[in-house]
Amino acid sequence: MARWDGKYTIAVDFDGVIHLYKSGWKDLDIIEDDPHEDAWRVLGEYVEHFHVHIFSARGQEQRGIEAMKEWFKKHNCPQEIFDKLHFATQKPTAHLYIDDRAFCFEGTFPTVDAIKSFKPWNKR
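RE: above sequence
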């Protein structure tokens, strides 16, 4: 999980983490909402310490990756951050995943009811 240069790889989900995702899913290349207010600040910190892979179901097709890249540019992601991002075509091997739709497994599996009632942070 560490690269030859000693930096860990972290994977950051796009929809619901970087992109606010208030409008919900439209299509691979339709991304309507703004970035999270802290997105550029924290990504700037992350790229200095880690290899940052952006992952999303959108990344399974090239037009989805291109749409995410265009969205970053449209929303003025600083070039020095953008140039250090990697866009994953599948779930990357990583030291840590930052995702709005996940349970942190700490030795106990979530119950069926907990899974059914799960809501991401922006839907609570």
